Amino acid sequence: MVFKIQRLKVVLTGLNKIHESIIKNIQHNYRKRIITKINYFLFFHQSI
């Protein structure tokens, strides 16, 4: 029984870490996309 609980804890912490890294990746990609859009907009503005 104790073994099962410990194993469950390990699995949960593993899932937590995966979840955190996914969220970080999403935030990073989102930020990158916004920066790219801003740069594109500025570039487009200058060329007019």
SSE layout and pairing:
Elements: H1 2-47
Average pLDDT confidence is: 90
Cα(first) to Cα(last) distance is: 71 Å
Q: Tell me the overall shape.
A: rod-shaped
Strand content: under 5%
Provide structural commentary.
The chain has 48 residues and is an all-alpha fold. It has one domain. Helix content is 96%, strand content 0%. The protein is built from one helix and no strands. The chain has one helix at residues 2-47. The longest helix has 46 residues, at 2-47. It is rod-shaped, with a radius of gyration of 21 Å.
Key terms for this structure?
single chain, 48 residues, 0% strand
Summarize the entry for a quick read:
This protein is mainly α and 48 residues long.
